[in-house]
Amino acid sequence: MIAFIDEHRDAYGVEPICRVLPIAPSTYHERLAKRRDPALQSARARKDEELKPEVLRVFAENFGVYGVRKVWRQMKREGFDVARCTVQRLMRDLGLQGVIRGKPVRTTIADKAAPCPLDQVNRQFHAPAPNMLWVSDFTYGAPRPGWSGRRMLECKKRKEELSECLALCCEGA
After folding, report:
1. Is residue 24 a part of any domain in this protein?
2. In a domain, 165, yes or no
3. Tally of domains in the chain
4. How far is it, in rounded angstroms, from Cα 71 to Cα 123?
5. Closest CA to 17 of 33, 3, 30, 31
6. What DSSP designation does 112 have?
7. For every one of its 173 residues, what pLDDT tens digit does the chain have, with 9 covering 90 and above?
8. Does residue 164 fall inside a structural domain?
9. Spatial contact of 107 and 72, defined as CB atoms under 8 Å apart
10. Which of 98, 105, 143, 150 is deepest in the core (most CB within 10 A)?
């Protein structure tokens, strides 16, 4: 939400945006102050900023194959007093993941000779009114915590709707 407010604050102002979003203006200003002055951050946040480069370094020195447990053990050998769950959280924040052994599961093997289904909507996924166009898709994906392609699409749609709502609400303000 903070990033969204940063993007639109010049056009609408902070308070009108905060009236539409479920966030208090004081919370937004507090986050800005912490971003400007790291001394205002919590001890955990400051420690995380110190440890992130070390986690990246250990991960890179080991060719990007170490997982949480091995990165944590290597950091312990180097003298860092850090918990395994902290390394796990930092690696997740940095988008790092160790190599997983084994073959990936193939659930579908496409038949190249089979005809493709017809495109009934000619790639025009816009409905003139609710309940006029229904589209379905069956996709298999290995479950991963915190990530889903569908969830990303929903968030994108919500962001577009929020921008439209914000424009309508803040025109009179």
Report:
1. no
2. no
3. 1
4. 46
5. 3
6. T
7. 899 999 999 999 999 999 998 899 999 999 999 999 989 999 999 999 999 999 999 999 999 999 999 999 999 999 999 999 999 999 999 999 999 888 877 777 888 888 877 777 677 767 777 777 766 665 555 555 544 444 444 444 455 555 665 566 555 54
8. no
9. no
10. 98
18, 5 in Cβ contact below 8 A? yes
Q: Which two tokens stand for residue 70?
A: 């091995």
Cα–Cα distances in angstroms (integers) from residue 28 to residues 24, 88, 168, in the given order: 7, 28, 22
Do residues 91 and 54 touch, judged by C-beta distance below 8 A?
no
Helix (H) or strand (E) holding 47: helix 43-61
Domain with 46 in it: 42-100
The residue type of 39 is A
The structure tokens listed for 52 are 């992130």
Give the span between the Cα atoms of 92 and 96, in whole angstroms.
6
- Determine the 3-state secondary structure of 99 from DSSP: coil
What is the radius of gyration, based on Cα positions, of the chain?
23
Q: Which residue has the tokens 């990303």?
A: 152
The reply to whether 83 falls in a domain is yes
